[in-house]
C-alpha cells in the first residue's frame, strides 16, 4: 500500500520509496524508513494531501505520496 491510498486519520509506517530522485527529497523532509505517518487532511479535489511526519505537518502532491510505500 502507498501513502496516497490512506484516508484522513489513518496511519502507516514508511517502508521504502519507488522513485529514487523523489526519495532523496522526501527523506530530507523527514520521511525516513521506519517513521510513522498520519494523514490529517485531503484537499477537496484529492490533491494535495497533508500528513504529520517527524513532528510537523507536510503537504504532498498525490504523485509524491504514491512513491512512499508503507508497511
Give a structural overview:
The structure is a single chain. This protein is an alpha+beta fold and 71 residues long. The chain has a single domain, classed as SH3 type barrels. It has two helices and five strands; from the N terminus they run βαβββαβ. The protein has a five-stranded antiparallel β-sheet. The longest helix has 9 residues, at 20-28.
Distance between the termini: 7 Å
The secondary-structure element order is EHEEEHE
Average per-residue pLDDT, rounded, comes to: 90
Catalogue the unreliable spans.
none
How many domain modules?
A: 1
Query: What's the CATH topology label?
Result: SH3 type barrels
The shape is: globular
- Give a short account of the largest sheet: 5 strands, antiparallel
- Work out the radius of gyration: 11 Å
- Give the strand tally: 5
Beta fraction = 35-45%
CATH class: Mainly Beta
Share of residues in helices? 10-25%
Structural class: alpha+beta
The CATH architecture name reads: Roll
Q: Give, in spatial order, the strands making up the sheet with the most strands.
A: 4-3-2-1-5
Number of separate helices: 2
Look at the structure and name the CATH superfamily.
Ferrous iron transport protein A (FeoA)
InterPro entries: Fe-transptr_FeoA-like, FeoA, FeoA_core_dom, Transcriptional_repressor_C
Keywords: Iron
Protein name: Ferrous iron transporter FeoA-like domain-containing protein
List the helices and strands and how they pair.
Blueprint: E1 11-17, H1 20-28, E2 36-42, E3 49-53, E4 56-60, H2 62-66, E5 68-70
Antiparallel strand pairs: 1-2, 1-5, 2-3, 3-4
Amino acid at each position: 500500500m502507498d501513502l496516497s491510498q490512506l484516508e484522513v486519520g489513518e496511519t502507516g509506517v514508511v517502508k521504502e520509496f519507488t522513485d529514487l530522485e523523489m526519495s532523496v527529497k522526501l527523506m530530507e523532509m523527514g520521511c525516513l524508513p521506519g517513521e510513522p505517518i498520519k494523514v490529517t487532511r485531503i484537499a477537496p479535489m484529492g490533491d494535495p494531501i497533508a500528513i504529520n511526519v517527524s513532528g510537523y505537518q507536510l503537504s504532498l502532491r498525490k504523485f509524491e505520496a504514491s512513491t512512499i510505500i508503507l508497511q
